[in-house]
Design a protein that fits this description.
Layout (H helix, E strand, L loop, with lengths): L17 E9 L8 E3 L6 E2 L3 H9 L4 E5 L13 E5 L16 H37 L6 H25 L8 H19 L4 H13 L9 H4 L7 H8 L1 H12 L4 H9 L20 H16 L10 H10 L6 H11 L7 E4 L3 E9 L2 E12 L4 E9 L8 E4 L10 H10 L1
Antiparallel strand pairs: 1-4, 1-5, 2-3, 2-4, 6-7, 6-10, 7-8, 8-9
Helix pairs in contact: 2-3, 3-4, 3-5, 4-5, 4-10, 5-9, 8-9, 9-10, 10-11
The protein binds fe (ii) ion (2 copies).
The site of one fe (ii) ion has 5 residues, from α10.
């Protein structure tokens, strides 16, 4: 077994304290009086037994419960998984809760500039990241120097506006999948490391680990890698070998951080010991690999593949919470804090009967992001985009998250960034 990566600040039991404002409650523990956020429908106060029965009859594993808006008994200890207590919102226009037009406008133009910069970073990195992956395909070893500059640039973009690079990297075709997946997991890892208050060195190491976690896939035949539908048992074995083959390759490279080797080998391990290649159990899986598992799955299922349609980020988060035994729950809670309950780019329906796109969210209140309204449902017409900071006195609220296809947005992932830039 490989040595485990353990940053000093996150030694055993040292995960940041968790708060009690929004908690995840398993479906069998839901009670009348709880204010629930089902994610895929409107939030509501559980008043009627028939609603509770309907939820229990559905296949959800549980729901987020807002304790502040609940009227019933608080969940007992041990029956809920609290989400990390938010940090206070820093006093900057980006997180403004004011609806004063000038402030909203300046936040919007700042955001548009950040999205432009993130798009430029992604375009610029395409050549060096592809060259790196091509080298792997040709059997060349990867040295630390080749990746450090790439990851520094991604890290800088994460510091500028993490949601911008994470959500823009989700836009991909089959040709650019491995490139975009590598960059996205790098950005998600760096962002998660920042939210865990890890130092800059650890952020860089975990970013490198994210970028290189799937290098072994470069050595897997494309007929298997891109095969639509189910793989045979033999093909599955070949596919799974990407972790050991990638690990061997990174070891040859020499001067790569331990976290990169660990994540490459162990990002498909599961907390209940049913993963691969070593069927490691619980904290025998290194912290970096436990972080990598969450970031990898989130990005893989929220992006389109040649053979399947993407899940929305919100659907993905709800499912990840319901897969018991798969992920480290503390890390998953922190991860949700880092990407939000309504991740940037989500299409939402408002109480005012408008459609909007989530353009910014705040750790202090995951249920009340800033939404750019662009469509009047009653009049069935596009309107001039305007921003609503729901954390302020916006006079409106999100009713439900919507499927873009239902509203005729067949290429939503390309469409919404244009709205942000408008
Ligand atoms: Fe993988
Ligand atoms: Fe992956």
């Amino acid at each position: 077994m490989t040595a485990q990566f353990k940053p000093e600040k996150l030694s055993e039991g040292a995960l940041p304290e968790v708060g009690e404002e929004i908690v995840w409650v398993a479906v069998e523990q839901l009670r009348l009086g709880m204010f629930v956020h089902p994610l895929s429908r409107a939030s509501f106060l559980l008043r009627h037994a028939r609603d509770l029965e309907a939820i229990r009859a559905s296949n959800v594993g549980g729901m987020f419960v807002d304790l502040k808006r609940s009227t019933g008994e608080k969940p007992e200890r041990g029956m809920s998984r609290p989400i990390k207590q938010p940090k206070p919102i820093p006093p900057q226009p980006a997180s403004s809760v004011s609806t004063a037009p000038a402030i909203v406008r300046s936040a919007a133009s700042r955001r548009a500039a950040q999205f432009d910069r993130a798009a430029a970073t992604l375009a610029r990195l395409r050549v060096p990241v592809r060259a790196l992956l091509d080298d792997v395909r040709l059997g060349k070893a990867i040295g630390g120097g080749a990746v450090a500059g790439i990851v520094e640039e991604i890290n800088a973009s994460v510091a500028d506006n993490a949601a911008a690079i994470i959500s823009l990297a989700r836009i991909r075709d089959s040709d650019s999948f491995t490139y975009a997946h590598s960059v996205a997991v790098c950005a998600l890892m760096a962002n998660l490391a920042r939210r865990m208050d890890l130092d800059a060195g650890s952020q860089q190491e975990l970013g490198i680990a994210g970028l290189l976690h799937d290098v072994g896939k470069m050595l897997i035949p494309k007929t298997i890698l891109n095969k639509p539908g189910k793989l045979s048992i033999a093909e599955m074995e070949v596919m799974r070998s990407h972790v050991t083959r990638g690990h061997e390759l990174l070891k040859k490279g020499g001067n790569l951080p331990q976290a990169a080797l660990e994540v490459c080998l162990s990002h498909h391990e599961k907390m209940d010991g049913t993963g691969y290649p070593e069927r490691l159990f619980g904290d025998r899986i290194g912290l970096a690999a436990r972080m990598g598992a969450v970031c990898d799955v989130y990005d893989a299922v929220t992006s389109n593949r040649p053979y399947k349609e993407a899940w929305s980020p919100a659907e993905c988060l709800a499912s990840m919470f319901s897969w018991r035994g798969h992920f480290d729950e503390d890390i998953l809670s922190l991860f949700i804090r880092s990407v939000g309950i309504y991740p940037v780019g989500s299409l939402v329906r408002m109480e005012s009967d408008h459609l909007g796109v989530v353009v910014e969210q705040y750790e202090a209140d995951l249920t009340r992001p800033t939404v750019r309204i662009f469509h009047d449902i009653a009049a069935d017409t596009r309107i001039a985009p305007r921003d609503l900071a729901l954390a302020g006195d916006a006079g409106d609220t999100i009713v439900t998250r919507e499927q873009p296809r239902k509203w005729g947005f067949d290429d939503w992932d390309s469409f919404w960034p244009q709205l942000v830039a408008a």
